[in-house]
Each structure stands twice: as structure tokens, then as C-alpha cells.
Amino acid sequence: MNRRFLYMLVQASPRCGSYTLRRTNPSRLFYPMDSPERAAAAAAAAAGAARAATSKAAATERPVEDARLPPPTTTFRCYNTDRPHFALLGRNKDKILVVDENEAVSRAVLYDDASRSIHLLPSPREPKIEPFSVAVGDNLYLMEGNPQGDKDDCDEHERSQYEATVEALLPGGEDTYWWRSIPPPPYAARMCNLNDDVRAYAAVGESSIWVSTDLNTGTFALDTASGAWSRAGDWPLPFEGRAEHVPEHGGLWFRLSDSGLLHAWDLRAEGRPEARRTRGHIADMAEGLLVGSEVAHLGDGWLCVGRLFEVKREGSCEYCACCRYHWRPSRVFAMFTGVEVEDAGDGTLHLIEHKSCRYSLGVGKSAQFVF
Q1: What is the model's pLDDT at position 202?
Q2: I need a labelling partner for 80 at 20 to 30 A (CA). Which of 1, 71, 206, 344 fits?
Q3: Share above pLDDT 70 across residues of the chain, in percent, rounded to a whole number
Q4: What is the pLDDT of residues 241-269, one digit of tens each?
């Protein structure tokens, strides 16, 4: 397993900009390979695939463990925003970038979980509103979720829509970082009132990032080595959000759909990406509404599927003293599920569900997976 921890940021107080960092060891989500529990899980997945092939009822859901929320390792307090952006940095995936989402000024810090230390970073050249980020090697590309046009079109300051945090190792062994501006993408809006949000993205190969937007029918590719953009295809990416690359089984990209099904695609095949057939069921929350998900690759065909659910509450409104706001909040749950991907030999992938752990995050709080 190539990951020691999986990270989650949990809002310390509803509607306020303080987040506690929680981490969990993903090995607890899997049975030993030679255990009878793993054999039973594989048999259940195969039986579920057979039932699906003959249009019979789905396999019985596996039990979900209600676990105690891991203790916080640190707290991030952001005074300029209630929705900071968090991202993993580095090949070891144990450093967390924190960036303010503020229209006036953007600040960045780096938390090193191995040394439990915080490093101040140079501020991005321009603030990023609703950003997303993609890791390529040791570099992290911070991207505008809705890039605007340049100053000639919008009468605004020119924006550096895409910036890369590039790590350089100094003679003293101390890490330093700097922002490198990338040319605007071809799909950048040319009018200020044109909203073209990024809907899907993925790191492809060793040095490429693919992006699809709402208003464009094609997919664009950024060559991170040269900084040049090109058109990857006349089709949009077949998923929403970030797809996770899993090099096993020929190299596939996995993403959870809005309906809660785990899908896989080969993005490096010629033409429009086609989905691989997947068979298997992942434990769900029947009473909860799925509001967010991420997939983490753990190595050897093992995945962790992280999901956020909201369960509506009845009763009176509550009051947040921090922001002086009344609202009727929902109770929020996070669920981590260990999934093993096995090639059935006929072009079908069996999704073997191991264990699922569910954490209650409290009432009215938001959370972000940092996978």
C-alpha cells in the first residue's frame, strides 16, 4: 500500500472558516489477502456480478462500521474565507497546500504532516475563485474553476489562471516553492458575463492535464513540460470532477458517478474514452443524500472511495454566533470504503468491497477530502 494516511478537513464550526485536519490509515479498510473475510468478499462480488448479468437482484449489502472520528492533527483558521482550498503536494502525498479563496488577495501555506510543521509560501500572483488542483509529479497545478477573459475583453487586470507550485531542493536540504504562470487555456471566457465552469479534469500520463468545461464540447490538454495547450479531442470527458488514475489493469481512470456507481475509463485509447464494464456493489447510506466523493489509488489495484452524505433533520432553526446566521442544518457523515479491483478475464472488472467506515461529522458542518 503506497499511502500511509488519507486526509479529510472537517469544519470546526458551522459556516465558519476553521477546519480541523483528520487522518486515517487506509489499511484498516482491507482484509488480509489470505483471510476468510477477503475470500467471502470476493465470492460476494462474483455472485453479485452473476446476478447482474442475469438481471437478478443485487447482492446483499455488507455491514458498515460506525467509527469514532480520528482526533485532529492540526487546525487551519482562515479569516478571509469560509471555503479555503486544500490539496496534497509531493510524491509522498503528506504535504497539504492551503490557499484562501478570496477575491482581493490570496495567501498560501504548506503543512508538512511528517514533521508537523507549517511553512509560509509565496502568494499566488492572482487570487483563485473556486479553484481546483491537479498533481503532476512533485508539482501541483492550481487552476481557476471559471477563468475570465483578459483585460482587453473585460477591462480587468490580467489573470494568471493557471499557476504551478514547483518544488526546488536547496543545497541546505530545505524545500522552497515558487509560482510559475501558465498561458491561459483556450476555453478561457472572452466575456466577463460568460460562465464556463470546469466540469471534469484528470492527470494523464507523466506530464499532461486534461480538462473539460460546461460550454465546450471538447477536451483540452495542458503539456506541463512546455506550458502549451492543445485539443485532446472533440468529446467531453465522460465524468464529472476529478478522475483517479489506477495504472493496474492496463491503466484506467476511476470516478464515482452521482448515482453512487464506480466507473472506469481508458483515457489513453484512440478516440472517445469508453467505459470498462465494472461489476460490484459498494455500501451506501439509504437515508442520506450523496453530496461529494473522491477516489484514492492505494496501489496494487486497491482503492479508497470517500463519500459525504447529508441527512436532513427536522425541528427548529439553529444559530451560528460566529456569522450570526440562522439555518436548519443537516447532519453530515463521511464514509470510507476499501475496494479491490480484480480483472475477471473477460474485459470485466470485479469491484470487491472490503470494509466501510462511517464517521459522523456533526450538524451543519462541511468537509473536504484531500486525496
Answers
A1: 97
A2: 71
A3: 80
A4: 999 999 988 789 999 988 888 999 999 88
End-to-end CA distance of the chain: give it in Å, rounded.
14
Mean pLDDT (the chain) is 82
Residue type, 9: L
* Whether the Cβ atoms of residue 43 and residue 49 lie closer than 8 Å to each other: no
Three-class DSSP labels, the chain: CCCCCEEEEEECCCCCCEEEEEEECHHHHCCCCCCHHHHHHHHHHHHHHHHHHCCCCCCCCCCCEECCCCCCCEEEECCCCCCCEEEEECCCCCEEEEECCCCCCCCEEEEECCCCEEEEECCCCCCCCCCEEEEECCEEEEECCCCCCCHHHHCCCCCCCEEEEEEEECCCCCEEEEEEEECCCCCCCCCCCCCCCEEEEEEECCCEEEEEECCCCCEEEEECCCCEEEEEECCCCCCCEECEEECCCCCEEEEECCCCCEEEECCCCCCCCCEEEEECCCCCCCCCEEEEEEEEEEECCEEEEEEEEEEECCCCCEEECCCCEEECCEEEEEEEEEEEEEECCCCEEEEEEEEEEEEEEEECCCEEEEC
Residue 224 phi, psi (nearest 5): -70, -20
Angstrom distance (rounded) from CA 132 to CA 145 = 6
Task: Please name the residues in contact with 351: beta carbons below 8 A apart, sequence gap of 6 or more.
Answer: 45, 262, 278, 279, 280, 281, 282, 339, 340, 341
Query: CA nearest 284: which of 309, 264, 313, 304?
Result: 309
The 10s digit of each residue's pLDDT in 206-235 is 899 999 998 877 999 999 989 899 999 999
pLDDT of residue 253: 96
Out of 100-114, 157-171, 275-289, which region has the weakest mean confidence (pLDDT)?
A: 157-171
